[in-house]
Amino acid sequence: MKVESESATGRPPVVRTKSTATGRSPAESLGSSVASVALSMLPTSSSARFVACAPGRLDLMGGLADYSGALVVNKTIDAHVAAAVERRTDGKLQILLSPSLVSERGGLVIPLGRLNELKHVGSDLSSDNGRAAVRSEPIRCLTAAVAEWLPCSSARRLEGGLTIAVDSSLEEFSDAGRDAALAAATVTAVSAAYGESLSLDCASSICERVENQWLGRGVGRGDSAGILGGHPSSVMLWRTDAIAEVGKLSLASGIAVIGIDSGVCPEDATDKRCRVRAAVLMGRQLIDAIVRHEGAGSIPWDGHLSRVSIDDYVTRFRDRLPTRLKGGEYLQRFGETNDPNTRVEPEFTYKIRSRTEHHIYEHHRSCQFSDCLRQAASGDELALLEAGKVMYASHWSYGQRCGLGSVQTDALVTLIRRQGPKEGLFGAKITGRGCGGTVAVLMRDDQRARDALDEIIGEYRLRTGRKATLVTGSRCGALVGGARVC
Question: pTM of the full predicted structure?
Answer without folding.
Answer: 0.87
